[in-house]
Amino acid sequence: MKVMLTGANGQLGRALQELLQQEPEVTVFATASKTSALEAPFPVTVLDITDKEAVRSVVLEEAPDIIINCAAYTKVDQCETDEENAAKVNEDGPRYLARAAKLVDAKLVQVSTDYVFDGKSEKPYVETDETNPVSAYGRTKLAGEKAVMEEWDKVFIVRTAWLYGDGKNFVKTMLNLSKTHKELSVVMDQHGTPTTAIELAKMIWFIAQTSRYGIYHGTCEGSTTWYEFAKEIFNVFGKTVLVHPVTSKEYNAAANRPEYSVLCNCRLNKETDYRMKEWKEALQDYAEWFQKKGGK
Ligand SMILES: NC(=O)c1ccc[n+]([C@@H]2O[C@H](COP(=O)([O-])OP(=O)(O)OC[C@H]3O[C@@H](n4cnc5c(N)ncnc54)[C@H](OP(=O)(O)O)[C@@H]3O)[C@@H](O)[C@H]2O)c1
């Protein structure tokens, strides 16, 4: 079976490469944007998913069985002032991939986000809940979901949240700040679920081998706030940092974020026996993996 990864040098892309390397039946064809290709830990072919013709010809040539799109414009605040480019990567690229997937009858996994919701709910969002993004990032990711569903049937949409793995992320930011700060202020009024890239990769790989197409929520189990998450990171990594809670208003980021974006993995839990780990357990695994890698 041939699996094509796009954006393979991002956090999720790297986790999938690690995971799929252990699958004897799988050949991975990994692609990444030009810049990321230069520093990739695994060999990659250059493919910009916003290049319609390149996407078409690469997919026709490689004829993968499954395409997993890990490429995205993920800088949430930057999207506010660069929505046009964000839409190219988060909407147009996925559309081209879906069209190309249809040409070779490949399944497509499109990864999406909790930020498609407005965060006004008081209970975990289910897959069928109404979307209403409050940021440019959320709008472009929602447009990406719609685009792939318009183009092709054999599509899985997996919405995840607060992702961290091998790359820039909240955990690494906290660990870096702990080297220079004894006290930090962290947002306490946004609720969500930290999810490791490896837990997401495993879930995606499980679901991609089925024919149960459609929308899934795929986050670790449980929920927390950024403030509580930061405290747990320092606890697990043995750092002494005093964390102060601040409101989103005080923090004043460029993009609005949903106050409550906890996702229920309802469909996964109802229709399959696959379960994602609890977020604190996944954080422990991450700490072990991080230390094995020499803390980089
Ligand atoms: N990170 C989170 O907290 C989070 C939360 C919810 C959902 N998600 C979703 O989860 C998925 C994976 O996120 P992630 O954290 O792994 O993202 P990431 O680490 O930022 O990786 C995204 C990758 O996409 C590549 N890329 C960007 N533009 C591209 C283009 N035009 N063509 C090909 N590749 C391109 C980037 O490469 P360059 O930067 O080198 O161009 C980067 O390697 C995304 O769909 C994201 O929206 C993430």
Automatic annotation (TrEMBL):
Q: Does the keyword Oxidoreductase apply?
A: yes
Indicate yes or no for the key word Mitochondrion: no
**Origin, by domain of life?**
Bacteria
Q: What keywords were assigned to this record?
A: NADP, Oxidoreductase
Q: What is its EC number?
A: 1.1.1.133
- Residue spans making up a coiled coil are none
Any one of the GO CC terms: cytosol
Q: Which CDD domains match?
A: dTDP_HR_like_SDR_e
GO BP annotations of the record are: dTDP-rhamnose biosynthetic process
Residue stretches making up the RmlD-like substrate binding domain: 1-288
InterPro entries from the xrefs? dTDP_dehydrorham_reduct (IPR005913), NAD(P)-bd_dom_sf (IPR036291), RmlD-like-bd (IPR029903)
Pathway as given in its UniProt record: Carbohydrate biosynthesis; dTDP-L-rhamnose biosynthesis
- One Pfam family name is RmlD_sub_bind
Q: What class of enzyme is it?
A: oxidoreductase
Residues passing through the membrane, by range: none
The UniProt GO MF terms for this protein read: dTDP-4-dehydrorhamnose reductase activity
Q: What is this protein for, i.e. what is its function?
A: Catalyzes the reduction of dTDP-6-deoxy-L-lyxo-4-hexulose to yield dTDP-L-rhamnose.
The similarity comment for this entry is:
Belongs to the dTDP-4-dehydrorhamnose reductase family.
Instruction: List the protein's name.
Output: dTDP-4-dehydrorhamnose reductase
**The organism of origin for this protein:** [Clostridium] polysaccharolyticum
